[in-house]
Amino acid sequence: MILDEGKTPERRSILAELQATIGGVLRAYSGILFVDHAAIGFMFLCATFWFPNVGLAGLIAAAIGMAVGYVLQLPYAISGVNVYSSLLVGLSLGAFYELDARLIVLIALSAALTVLLAAALRDVLWRLGRLPVLSVPFVIVALTTALAAANYGGLTPYYEPAQLPPALMGDWIDTFLASLGSVFFSPHPIVGVALFLGIALRSRYLAFLCICGYASGQLVFSLLTVNPPPGLLAWTGFNFALTAMAVGGVFVVPSLATFVLALIAAGSSAVVTSALGNALLIYGLPVMASPFLLTTLTFLAALRLRMSAAAPVLLLEQPGLPETNFERARLARRRLGSLASTPLLAPFLGEWQVYQGFDGPHTHQDRWRYALDFHRLEGAVAYSGEGNDLEDYHCFGLPILSPAFGLVVNIQDSLPDNLPGELDLRNNWGNYILVQTDAGSFVLLAHLKKGSVRVHPGERVTPDTIIAKCGNSGRSPQPHVHLQVQRHGNLGGSTMPFHLVSAVTRRDSQSGQYHVVAEVDSGDSVQRAEDDRQLSSALHLPVGRTLRYRVTDAKGDTQDSMLRVIVTLFGQFRLVGETGASAAFEHRNGTLAFYDRQGPADQLLDLWLLALGLSPLSNQALVWLDEPSVRLMPLGRVTRFLLSCLHPLGMGIQSRYERQWLSADKCWKQNGTHTIEILRHAHSASTVAVFDPDTGCRELSMQYHDRHWRAALLAIGQSGDRGVRAWEQEVPVMGSDQGRLIGN
Predict the structure, then answer these.
(1) Rounded Cα distance, 216 and 203, in Å
(2) Fewer CB within 10 Å: N-end or C-end of the chain?
């Protein structure tokens, strides 16, 4: 197996170890303000040395915290909360006491305690509610050391940060920037400028939340507080900004609802700041980040208990920059449907028809309105002969498949099947299977054939698992399968919206159409878009696969570039370019789908993602739509700047794909047209991908205005690993005639 890190710690060079260590420290600095980036972390580190005593104390604590985590082999030893919590403890001690041998001893012990506490609390908070640990270890240890230091007569107070700086840009702006500097215990507007600039460079929306959150908290604070002590907001106001950033951008999908929630959370943080200030003043303790932690964790814990999938949408398991969160959610909505609706595969093979849809006239009413009934027709009828026997019905006894990944929680398998036209009103659902999906909802498949259930409670199922056969048990006058989604696991509970994905649908005598997301109704014929063996082979990307291309850019310059497939420590497959840029991908539901584009610009990778980013692996998929990220378009700098102003969180491209089999060349040609509209002016690009079952993607090309890019496959190979032989096989470049065909 090839992992994301590439090498084991024993095999890493000293230089790589040093780079990882330095990078870990720098990312700890930037991670405090949610912008994980080494260069910005270096900017923040330099800013802390506005007060050298503070900056040096923090750097010492970060180094000690990293060393403790590394020696003890703790998770995230050289990055993350372990390092930035110990860093904050060092900064806090450096802000109150002059750095000498005694303080270094206290910093070392406090940093070690912080790392251990961070490791323990991370596990506890995750188990309690999948909550982030944030800077909880820092606050606990910092308050503890503040109490302990009061008994140490050998520490010399450090007064410089306590002095109010001269007015620079006006009271409100100065106080805002000074409070931002207080995150690093350096309450000075110049420090705040550096920190705010670092935030804005990584995420303008996060910078916007920072300003709005502070303004909201400051407004509440000024309304509720009479004659506050001078400098109080400069030392505590950062809590308002951090709360808004976390609740409105980092742990949620940005939306109007989350923005309003962020302002409310920031205002609440101001109330908590006043309350804690009075309580801690009794013991002479500073407030520090306590209001931010209490408010943020309370809001996140409450949001996690919501029963609705509508906004605000929580992202506790994979937080990120607001722009990244927005792009992930936007692409997921396009490919998987509304977040308030559960995506399912059709629970059968072959073509079946919906004979009762949502709000159906028979039984799909009231709290059971979201349900679908399927049966099978041949020649527009559901049975052969007279239809007096169950065996006359085309769907009776056919296999039923799980429509999702999940866990079987309940079954019924002993009820008899009704004769056609008869009903069992005592057992409405008849024989059934209840599956809890990985997303947490419950899927009910009902009216199954007696004795046909193949699964047991506690058994794991996938969309390929045959779980039963179609029957006619319960309240069912003719053989069919009933499908519904419930929020709870009680039999026949209230239903919730769902839709089908990766399906081919048709109406009456029309030809079938492939849909990434299909919303069907009574009379629609539906079938799964099943994998075609040759298509799957052509676009198969096993771990370790390498693809070497000759890339010709818009200027006519050529260079060889490689794509390789890795799998991360978390089991995620990614396609990685030579620049380090990468994108995750999955082969699921009959589709190869790429997402989560990360890293710098990469011509070859972006061309691949635009041409093949969503590729159904069914030979019935001839036309389909997608909305990849606009960053894949080769737009000019002026156009990109204009887009960033009009759509600061990003937007999607309107992409339409067509695929055809070229018999003469024995390959597929997949054409894409990609359009965005900026101020009523359309920008369009076209892509072509050519691939075959034996060598995969042979050629990629893109046309945008009068510029043209092309990538021709030179070789395919396999990266070596323990037990895996490295190899590379050259591929003949497609001829000039074919190249012209592809380019057109």
Answers:
(1) 20
(2) C
